[in-house]
Amino acid sequence: RFALSADVALEVADSTLRSRFSLAAGERRGFALRFGPAEAGEPSATAAAEVPARIEDTVAGWRSWEADHDVYEGPHRELIRFSSRVLKGLTYRPTGAIVAAPTTSLPESLGGGRNWDYRYSWIRDASMTLDALWIGTCSDEIESFVDWMVGAAGGHVHDEQPLQIVYGIGGERDLAERELPHLRGHRGSSPVRIGNGAWDQTQLDVYGEFLAAYYRYLEHLGEPDALVSHFLCDLADAAADRWQQPGSGIWEARAGPQHYLSGKLYCWLALDRAVRLAPRIGGNGNVDRWARERDRIRETILSRGFSERKQAFAQALDSNDLDAAALLIPLAGFLPAGDERVRSTIEALERELMQDGLLRRYHSDDGLDGSEGAFVICSFWLCSALARAGEAERAEELFERVVGYANDLGLLAEEIDPASGELLGNFPQAFSHVGLITAAADIDAHAGG
User: Fold this and answer.
1) Residue 275 and residue 282 in contact, taking contact as beta carbons nearer than 8 Å
2) pLDDT at 31 over 70
3) What is the spatial distance between Cα 88 and Cα 130, in angstroms, rounded to a whole number?
4) How far is CA 193 from CA 19, 111, 254, in A?
5) Interacting residues of 12 by C-beta distance below 8 A, sequence separation 6+
6) Buried (b) or exposed (e) across 108-118, using 16+ Cβ within 10 A?
7) Are 264 and 297 in contact, with CB atoms under 8 Å apart?
8) What DSSP element (H or E) covers 415?
9) Would you give the distance in Å from CA 380 to the centre of its chain?
10) ω before 428 within 30° of 0 (cis)?
């Protein structure tokens, strides 16, 4: 139920709240609105009067955080600084969880049914958020996130207790998806959903994303305790055990499991980082196996992941379908961006998936009805790949185009309608601002090179 406190008279009619009052220069009026269980009771009588002080305290807190974390220097400093604030705002301080977006059911196409609940913490999104925050703020959020993730996973990863791809911000595990038919949806886009049906999918990339983020912050974190060390070893073992299995991929397709290239790539990254971490996490007894499986994955990707017909790394092994996720190959360090196979992949993706100057994810069947816009992070991945391949000017041109779609506050949604330029999907989207930070940093690092 909603509970409201105000220091002016209020009128409620037809689900609309109204108040009419006059203010002189320097005067303030406060409103305090809270949503919670009925047993939580009414706000305190002074809640409305406390609003100005709470706002001032919030402003002071943000300014203090910015002063301590304003570390990036480069031509795109202000954009990176702003997006870092957005990502910081998507963290849930009581537990350390990082949400993908603070909204649910904002549609990927107006009137369509691709409306999902993103108010949870995905291991992938959160790990990439931490990577981006390292660039923009040298963030200290990693410690709380590691504690939250180890706790949400129960401290172990094994066949009877696999790592979920997403948890609730309090560590909730059951995120069963259901529809709310009594709600019309944003601009008539139904159904409105709570929960997310991808919560029990197999997505093999999560091991690599978390281990890569942990490795990046290694010196900042110091020596891991026994529980964290055991958990990290479990993740590496899971990547070694499961990389040959099919999964649902990073885009959470509902067309059935496939051998998605992105899953294999991030299992390779998980094992590569685990080999490097072994002396710190007590994994020396496993390191030979981790290295052996890492090398097997590399051989598999190179022999079965490249489509000779398309002259590009494909969406899945032994496939000719293209996917923007192939751009993660140079970004993860699997191959340099200048490698001829990466360059031809970039060309193929631009040729097949570019629409009105924006890169779509894929054209293959994902098991869902309806259409979607251009996924923002994919265009930013292309910016990064171009910059690393020595084409910083082209990267900058694309970057400026994508950033130009941000709203008047500088915020980006999950997707953009290539035809109209309208923002689509949940908002603001962590993934989009992650892509902005990493692309800006790559362009800055390779400008003039």
Assistant:
1) no
2) yes
3) 9
4) 32, 14, 16
5) 18
6) bbeebbbbbbb
7) yes
8) strand 415-416
9) 13
10) yes
| Contact in structure between 164 and 97 (CB atoms under 8 Å) | no
Contact (Cβ atoms closer than 8 angstroms) between residue 319 and residue 309 = no
Q: How far is CA 413 from CA 72, 421, 429, 432, in A?
A: 24, 11, 5, 7
The rounded percent of the chain whose pLDDT value lies above 90 is 71
Residues 36-45: tens digit of each pLDDT: 666 766 666 6
What single letter denotes the amino acid at residue 419?
A
Pairing assessment for the beta strands 91-92 and 16-18 based on DSSP bridges? unpaired
DSSP string covering 151-187, please?
HHTTT--BTTBPPPSEE-TT-------EE-TT---GG
Angstrom CA distances, 149 to 144, 156, 171, 202, stand at 9, 11, 8, 17
Residue 360 CA to residue 152 CA, distance in Å, equals 33
Half-sphere exposure of 21 (CA within 13 A, CB side): 14
Instruction: Look up residue 159 and give its two tokens.
Output: 């066949």
Q: What is the identity of the amino acid at 162?
A: P
First and final CA of the chain: distance in angstroms? 58
| Mean local confidence (pLDDT), 52-74 | 89
Contacts of 335-343 with CB under 8 Å at 24 or more apart are 336/388, 337/385, 337/386, 337/388, 337/389, 337/390, 338/388, 338/389, 338/390, 341/306, 341/313, 342/313, 342/385, 342/389, 343/389
Instruction: Tell me 316's DSSP state.
Output: B
**pLDDT at residue 6, as a whole number:** 78
Q: Retrieve residue 29's tokens.
A: 């009026």
- Give the tokens for residue 6: 């105000």
DSSP secondary structure of 272-314: HHHHHHHHHHT-TTTHHHHHHHHHHHHHHHHHHSEETTTTEE-
Integer Cα distance of 209 and 193 in angstroms: 27
**pLDDT of 48:** 73
Decide: pTM greater than 0.85.
yes
Q: What's the CA gap between 110 and 413, in Å, rounded?
A: 14
Kindly tell me the sign of the dihedral angle through the C-alpha atoms of 281, 286, 292, 298: negative
Decide: 379 and 431 in contact? Cβ < 8 Å: no
Q: What pLDDT shows up at residue 105?
A: 96
